[in-house]
Amino acid sequence: MCIRDRLDVVYMTRVQRERFASQEEYDKVKDSYIMDKKMIVDNGKKDVVIMHPLPRVNEITTDVDDMPNAWYFRQVKHGIYARMAIIALALGLWKD
User: Residue 64: its pLDDT value, please?
Assistant: First the structure.
């Protein structure tokens, strides 16, 4: 059994241009890690959760968006509520 067959969550991020010394080095690997629907269906657990901090460049294809596994839009929505709560606390607006 391969490790990807046992993963419950995959947190995908982009290859970060700012981590490379030159554009040429970045261009060599920028498209090396692209997740698509076929990859998930063929190689992953049926209920694996896919997360991503957004915005994406091209590391997750749009055919993944409609899968129940794609949690990144929920992740963004939850982040909005978390930031709203933090702001309310910081402004003293939170009532117990």
Answer: 96
